[in-house]
Amino acid sequence: MPAWICATCANHYPEQDSAPAQCVICADERQWVPASGQRWTTLAELAAAGHRSDIRQVEPGLLGIGADPPVAIGQRALLVQTADGNLLWDPSGFVDDSAIAAVEDAGGLRWVTASHPHFYGSMVEWSHAFDAEILLPQADAQWLTRPDGNVRTWSGALSVLPGVTLIQCGGHFPGSAVVHWAAGADGNGALLSGDTIFVTPGEERVTFVWSAPNRLPLPETAVRRVVEAVRPYRFDRIYGGWWQPVLRENARDILETSADRYVQFLRGEVPVD
Ligand SMILES: [Zn+2]
Ligand SMILES: [Zn+2]
Fold first, then answer.
1. Which helix (H) or strand (E) is 129 found in, with range?
2. Does the first or last residue of the chain, that is N or C, have fewer Cβ atoms within 10 Å of its Cβ?
3. Does residue 235 contact residue 184 with C-beta atoms inside 8 Å?
4. CA atoms of 220 and 211, how far apart (whole Å)
């Protein structure tokens, strides 16, 4: 019996004979169901269709694991490597033996987690491969579509390892989170943000979304909460959910100015005609 995978968001569902009726992630207003109807796939079917793991060293201590061609929303995972253990972030819905081998070579896996439910992907598959703990914000734990006994919930902030902290920012989902990685960006600090903080194509600003595909914004209070949640931390770089774009430097200042600009639009303080 396969674990069923939603073809649109790549979230995994329990192993059972037939596919579920609908994907609860895609039926939610933040996502979408294809006009032609819900579609399902499996890891075996994705591999047979030619998907392979795409593994790249992103910077020292940070390994990227995506799929080529990308699957569904197309996020690539990031493996934060430390002497005390490794944390996998935002796993793609696709995983194969070469991805598992790459993480083994990098020192294995102690924790797997994600920025928000759209990117829970193959989290349970990774947990089973390494007996790794699944860290989920309490506020979003009900969105894990393949329930598992290895889950530990957290709220607010969680120091996972020295220099590696999960920070609940809310916004896109109540439990939307980022990783603060103090050793990132040559020791200047980096945030791994998925789309909790959304890096835009020019790599010189960020934005905030309640729904990316349906182009729905966040209210001012939520934008301010995201900025305040990360303000105590030192960082110069923000990695979004994909290989590109990356906000490579000055990220702390850019986050503040981007939030101020966003709020000006929300308040109608920007002339548009
Ligand atoms: Zn889905
Ligand atoms: Zn999302």
1. helix 123-130
2. C
3. yes
4. 15
Which ligand approaches the C-alpha of residue 72 most closely? 1
Q: Which ligand is nearest to the CA of 119?
A: 2
Distances (CA, A) of 269 to 209, 215, 260: 19, 20, 11
Residue 39 DSSP class: -
Chain CA centroid to CA 36, Å: 27
Closest CA to 7 of 70, 66, 76: 70
What is the pLDDT confidence band of residue 273, given thresholds at 50, 70 and 90? confident
Find the ligand nearest to 240 CA.
2
Sign of CA dihedral 222, 227, 233, 234: positive
Distance (Å) from CA 273 to ligand 2 centroid = 31
Query: Residue 272 has what pLDDT?
Result: 87
Is it the case that residue 32 has pLDDT exceeding 90? yes
